[in-house]
Write a structure and sequence with these properties.
Layout (H helix, E strand, L loop, with lengths): L1 H27 L16 H8 L1 H35 L2 H10 L1 H4 L2 H15 L5 H11 L2 H12 L3 H9 L4 H30 L2 H7 L6 H11 L4 H23 L2 H4 L6
Length: about 260
């Protein structure tokens, strides 16, 4: 009896996760100008509007640009921090690592409010630079944890061998360490970029409606006059996330990089 209940439970969870996706997909290809499911007539006009109208293209470009730079900032911080912690192997290093986990432990509204006050005091409120840096700093936890696994897997013998061959610390890092942790860095970058593209609260609190990202645009559309373009944008989020994870899984052992066990 227990296996049957287990299968029913898993099936119920799967249906609960997939059903909203199916409904949103149906709305996005429905020709009607209101929310209706199932579609009465199939059409891709909402996707065309999403990818052609300036009101949507600018937020898409803002979101992708912010995500690209924020991912680089987050991975750079995480890579430098993990390298120093790996070299020092001290209790202080563990404290610094623990602080790096802070952004994911605090409620998002507290982080967003703190960032809003900080950038307002600095005179950068409403600027794209503030949004980029905020995303890069507050999403550093993911690459920090993922890269920590990469550095933990490094063999001291390889490092000692490179030094024995006369390599400088910089050459050892560039030619030995960095290639070994590169898959972890790429995975961390991709995850930060995905979260950044989907982030609303921090973007809104830091830049308001001055720097309109795609999530802010969606909120404005829902609040001031809903059109099914929102469903198309939501499907774009989903396809971007799924596509990124599929590409990562093709070139890396994604489950291993994320710390999952295959046992």
């Amino acid at each position: 009896m227990i296996p049957i209940f287990k299968r029913l439970f898993v099936t119920a969870i799967a249906v609960g996760l997939i059903l909203p996706f199916v409904i949103v997909a149906g709305v996005s290809i429905n020709s009607a100008s209101n929310i209706s499911f199932p579609p009465s007539e199939l059409s891709l006009k909402w996707y065309t509007q999403l990818l052609t109208e300036p009101d949507w293209l600018l937020p898409i470009r803002n979101s992708l640009s912010i995500a690209a730079v924020a991912g680089f900032i987050a991975v750079s911080i995480a890579l430098a921090a993990n390298y120093v912690l790996w070299r020092l192997k001290s209790g202080f290093g563990k404290l610094v690592f623990g602080l790096g986990l802070g952004p994911f432990m605090l409620p998002p509204i507290i982080i967003a409010m703190g960032a809003s006050v900080f950038w307002a005091e600095m005179g950068f409120y409403g600027r794209v630079e503030a949004t980029v840096i905020s995303h890069g700093v507050f999403f550093v936890t993911l690459p920090l944890v993922i890269l920590a696994r990469g550095f933990a897997a490094l063999s001291d013998d390889v490092i000692e061998a490179s030094r024995t061959m006369g390599a400088t610390p910089w050459q050892t890092f560039v030619k030995v360490i960095f290639p070994l942790v590169l898959p972890y860095a790429i995975t961390g970058y991709a995850l930060v970029a995905i979260i950044s593209v989907n982030e609303y609260l921090i973007s809104y609190m830091v830049s308001g409606f001055v720097v309109e990202t795609l999530p802010i645009r969606i909120f404005n559309n829902v609040r001031y006059g809903y059109t099914p373009v929102v469903a198309s944008a939501a499907m774009g989020f989903a396809l971007l996330t799924i596509g990124t994870l599929l590409v990562l899984s093709m070139f890396t052992d994604l489950l291993k990089l994320l710390g999952a066990s295959r046992d």
